[in-house]
Design a protein that fits this description.
The protein has about 400 residues and is α+β, with helices and mostly antiparallel strands. It is built from nine helices and 19 strands. The relative contact order is 0.13.
């Protein structure tokens, strides 16, 4: 058998139409491949990836499947051996401007498999949502941007042994710190397909390490600017964060900026069970999460901004909003700005003004204004400050 590789023709122009090109059919097809719902061809043979637990034949089939996909799409594709049983699969594309800085998007490909006291398989978790969904999203993103050269080095990484203690991602992140690797941002995708109550809520997880909080807040704006029908909320944790967001954890532990996209808000009765099947997916939610992940890659690896970004949103550290998101009240603090003629307003996603919070002189130090959000519908809103020759904006979410 001969494999003929054709050279990839790169373009340097990327635009918003790519986001509309994300295919739910392509996503679902890949999830079925990885969760054993249909025959796949690996090493020239028809087979099923019946389970992806670490150090099993199914896990090794998934490794080969993902490696072959990377080659098929034209990426530099490699295995990273972490231990005798653990291999990560890495696809890479060189950047055109910032070749010493890397944007990484990753998802674990192993799944859980429960056993009885004798070590026999009790039941398999096909792992459709956890985490064939994250892997399928990465494959779809890689398919769509393969002909576009990023400004930053870009890596797509499929992690092994997340369910066994984030072994694969931990190995990579520890080695990256040892080698002084410059990682601009790591984006983790884990469980993107359920949303049982169809509310569109998605968590963007962060820990206050490096620029992680800024990236998490900016992700909300990116979702809004690209008109993606999700309601993102940022989520952090106090104390130890190992185990908080899976494969993002060791990036934080090693001082790197990282965020994680996950649906951990709904009924989790199918989690790690034999019922983790694609038939239970909310397909529109899965599609929208993939669109958001693609928009993040476009923004951070390609420095892509939609035409309206400068007119609509300037993310400002001079405005602090707490709590964010909220179900009732927010406290808005204006940091380090004095002005004799200023205005503080709230707008909805369509640009309609919801409220004028303040208008006049702002001469006190770091004033805080309280706003009652109980009459607002669950959505993303803008707080806009104008004054002193500046126009600054920050977003907040209302949830119920």
């Amino acid at each position: 058998m001969f494999i003929i590789e054709f050279p990839t023709l790169f373009s340097y122009t990327i635009d918003n139409t790519l986001i509309d090109s994300v295919s739910i059919d392509s996503l679902i097809y890949t999830v079925k491949d990885l969760s054993g719902e249909q025959i796949v061809k690996i090493d020239g043979r028809d087979t099923l990836i019946s389970k992806r637990k670490y150090n099993t034949a199914g896990n090794q089939l998934a490794e080969k499947y993902l490696y072959a996909k990377g080659r098929e799409l034209g990426y530099k594709t490699n295995y990273q051996t972490c231990s005798a049983t653990c291999k990560n699969i890495m696809w890479e594309m060189d950047g055109t401007l910032y070749q010493d800085s890397i944007v990484i998007i990753g998802a674990h490909f192993d799944s859980e498999c429960f056993e009885d006291g004798n070590g026999q398989t009790k039941y398999l978790s096909p792992g459709a949502n956890d985490n064939a969904s994250g892997c399928a999203a990465i494959i779809e993103i890689a398919r769509l941007i393969r002909n576009y050269k990023p400004q930053y080095n870009l890596k797509f990484i499929f992690w092994d042994e997340e369910e066994f203690g984030t072994v694969g991602s931990g190995y990579y992140a520890n080695l990256a710190k040892k080698n002084s690797e410059k990682i601009k941002l790591y984006i983790n995708l884990d469980m993107l397909g359920w949303d049982m109550d169809n509310d569109g809520l998605v968590r963007i997880k962060y820990v206050k390490v490096a620029q992680s909080l800024n990236f998490a807040e900016e992700a909300i704006n990116i979702c809004l600017l690209h008109n993606i029908s999700l309601i993102p909320e940022i989520k952090t944790i106090k104390g130890s964060y190992i185990g908080f967001s899976g494969d993002a954890d060791y990036f934080w532990h090693n001082g790197f900026s990282a965020i994680g996209l996950a649906d951990m808000l709904d009924d989790m009765s199918l989690y790690h069970s034999e019922h983790d099947l694609v038939k239970y997916f909310n397909q529109q939610y899965f599609l929208n999460n993939t669109k958001l992940a693609l928009a993040l890659v476009m923004n951070y690896a390609y420095d892509y901004k939609p035409n309206s970004v400068n007119d609509i949103v300037i993310i400002s550290d001079n405005i602090s909003i707490f709590p964010n998101p909220t179900s009732d009240f927010i406290n808005i603090t204006i940091n380090g700005i004095n002005s004799r003629n200023c205005k503080l307003e709230i707008f909805d996603m369509l640009g309609n003004r919801v409220s004028v919070l303040y208008e006049g002189s702002l001469l006190s130090v770091n004033p805080t204004i309280n706003f009652d959000c109980r009459s607002l519908s669950p959505c993303i809103y803008f707080v806009r400050f104008s004054g002193g020759g500046q126009s600054l904006t920050k977003t907040f979410g209302v949830i119920r």
